[in-house]
Amino acid sequence: MKMGIFFGNLFWGILLILWGVSLILRGFGINIPLAKVFFAIVIILFGIKLLVGGSFKCTSGRVYKEAKGQFTEYSTVFATQNIDLTHVKPGDKPVKVNVVFSSGRVILPDDVVFDSKLTTVFGSLNTPTKSYSGIADTAQVINPDAVGDKVFMELNTVFGRTEVVVEHVDRPEEAAPADSTSN
Predict the structure, then answer these.
(1) What is the DSSP string of 13-52?
(2) Greater pLDDT, 82 or 46
(3) Cα–chain center distance at 75
(4) What's residue 3's pLDDT?
(5) Cα separation, 112 vs 92, whole angstroms
(6) Tens digits of residue pLDDT in 86-138
(7) Cβ atoms < 10 Å from Cβ of 29
(8) Buried b (16+ CB within 10 A) or exposed e, 45-62
(9) Are 80 and 63 in contact (CB under 8 A)?
(10) Label partner for 12 (CA 20 to 30 A): which of 62, 70, 92, 153?
(11) Using an 8 Å Cβ cutoff, are 95 and 72 in contact?
(12) pLDDT for 163 beyond 90
């Protein structure tokens, strides 16, 4: 079993947050056994690791892509990841993106309108026109000036940070249909 979790940002971030909270609470006369709480969190993290499989990586991760019914789903858990959706074309099937205990950068093509349902729970979500933090559940059209059919995107951020960016994509020109009239 890899023990990389103890040398990554997740470990040290949790340790420093707990230490800071315990110092603040101690000033109010509340004493929290920091070692017990920290040990409990480490056990919880290992339990989550067993449930989701794979290894903990704090600076890189995997995008899990699954076709579940009508969605193409991308999930990033305990990682920092770029989720490149520049291959999506107008009228494609819906896309679902989950960023959980992670930092994600979702890259969208500039020639597609995304009708988006955006949800964040104890996290932050930045789109090209608006930012959301804490708890938010809203709808937004991303890249409304593009031409063509919309693509529905559900974007969920839980205990993490997601940035949505729109980039120019050069797509190969599709060949025009041959003229069926003959002289």
Answers:
(1) HHHHHHHHHHHHHHHTT----HHHHHHHHHHHHHHHHHHH
(2) 82
(3) 7
(4) 45
(5) 10
(6) 888 888 888 888 888 888 999 999 889 999 999 988 888 999 999 888 888 89
(7) 6
(8) beeebeeeeeebbbeebe
(9) no
(10) 62
(11) yes
(12) yes
The amino acid at residue 123 is: G
95 vs 62: CA distance, rounded Å: 17
Could you give the percent of the chain with pLDDT greater than 70?
Answer: 70
Two tokens, residue 61 = 């991760």
Angle (nearest 5°) at CA 114 between 111 and 116: 165
- Look up residue 115 and give its two tokens: 């009708």
160's CB contacts (< 8 A; 6+ apart) are 99, 100, 101, 102, 103, 104, 123
Residue 59 has a pLDDT of: 35
Token output for 24: 């603040």
Given a contact cutoff of 8 angstroms between Cβ atoms, the answer to whether 155 and 137 are in contact is: no
